[in-house]
Design goal:
single chain; alpha/beta; 2 domains; Aminopeptidase; metal ion binding; manganese
């Protein structure tokens, strides 16, 4: 019998866990109830369980056989500060918080895989189940690393997955290289000299300088970067003044940069610095530019990605694994793990992405029909990785 079919018996229980987590969302580093639920279920399975790693992270340790080899599997646990608009029974019970990215499904699937691997430990080595807090912009991955994740739990490689709306259920996408972009932020302060709006010659207009700067910054992507190297520079805020007849002293511009390569990150930052200095000099304004690195690009290591593609094909069937999907300009803090260890982060089909099924949408809900495929992928990945010579 195919592994997917054997997991159908556990589907209702895993779905119930997923919906319970969905109904009780917790924000970054506040996942106390979720972490307690994970720890309780892991201990009930007889899995060695460690809590408080990276504040609210949980790691389970399952050993079988005598091999010193080890693999890490990661699921994220946090929710988003979004008011849910769904009305089904398992909707969020906490106003202003919602599992709008499917981390409830990720956590439930890894728990489901842990339960099956305990019952049928067809592997030789150690599995580390890494339940990570604070993926949504707060950096739970580096917090776990700082708490000694890889020293305390010496895995050879680490693997992650994310549900992907728009990719059909029963399909998996694997990228041999970049899969998600960096998420950098910038703040620009333009200091001019305030004046009466009827007498602009008596001041230095930061709004005019800022408007020129917004235009000039668009050249950073179109004229300073190889067109084959994808990058995005988006200005998302422009704040200045609060009166109709006053030229303000200061204008502020903010935005984000996305790229798939650390080299492109550096090129964009350097070019932005030059543009800011040049526009400031041209308008006689003092331009202060601050660039803040966020999550780095998520870049799969090629051997591990190819290994995962083979596992995915075994789980989903021939022709249902994509290795040519375009990477996303979204960001993911699994990238920090991949800076420390080899590994691969895959996309698991979540079904149609229309309407409210898109990520970070107030009507999003994880598709429970994807659960058996995610659980099966984790199980086969462990069995195949820890069976290699």
């Amino acid at each position: 019998m195919h592994l997917i079919d054997t997991l159908r018996a556990d589907h209702a229980e895993t779905t119930a866990i997923r919906r319970d987590i969905h109904a009780h969302p917790e924000l970054a580093f506040e996942e106390h109830r979720t972490a307690a639920l994970v720890a309780e279920r892991m201990r009930a399975l007889g899995i060695e369980t460690h809590t408080g790693i990276g504040k609210t992270g949980v790691v389970g340790v399952l050993r079988a056989g005598n091999s010193p080899r080890a693999i890490g599997l990661r699921a994220d646990m946090d929710a988003l500060p979004i008011q849910e608009k769904n009305e089904f029974n398992h909707h969020s019970k906490h106003p202003g918080r919602m599992h709008a990215c499917g981390h409830d499904g990720h956590t439930a699937m890894l728990l489901g895989a842990a339960a099956r691997l305990v019952r049928q430990p067809d592997f030789d080595g150690t599995v580390y189940f890494v339940f990570q807090p604070a993926e949504e912009g707060e950096g739970g991955a580096p917090a776990m690393i700082a708490d000694g994740l890889f020293e305390r739990f010496p895995m050879e490689a680490i693997f992650g997955l994310h549900n992907w709306p728009g990719l059909p259920v029963g399909q998996i996408a694997v990228h041999r290289g970049p899969v998600m972009a960096c998420a950098d932020r910038f703040d620009i302060e333009i200091k001019g000299h305030g004046a009466h709006a009827a007498m602009p010659h008596q001041g230095i207009d930061p709004v005019l300088a800022g408007a020129a700067l917004v235009q000039a910054l668009q050249s950073v992507i179109s004229r300073n970067r190889d067109p084959q190297d994808a990058a995005v520079l988006s200005i998302t805020q422009f704040h200045a003044g609060d009166a109709y007849n006053v030229i303000p002293d200061v204008a502020r511009i903010c935005g984000t940069v996305r790229a798939f390569s650390p080299d492109i990150q550096r090129q964009v930052e350097d070019a932005m610095q030059r543009v800011c200095a040049g526009v400031g000099a041209a308008f006689g304004a003092n331009v202060h530019f601050e660039y803040r690195r966020g999550y780095p690009p998520t870049i799969n290591t090629v051997p591990e990605a190819e290994f995962c593609a083979g596992v995915a094909g075994e789980v989903c069937g021939e022709g249902r694994v994509s290795v040519d999907a375009k990477p996303s300009m979204g960001a993911e803090d699994f990238s920090f793990f991949l800076q420390e260890k080899p590994g691969c982060y895959i996309w698991l089909g979540n079904g149609p992405g229309e309407g409210g099924c898109t990520l970070h949408n107030p009507r999003y809900d994880f598709n429970d029909e994807a659960i058996p495929f995610g659980v099966a992928y984790w199980i086969r990945l462990v069995e195949r990785w820890l069976a290699r010579a």
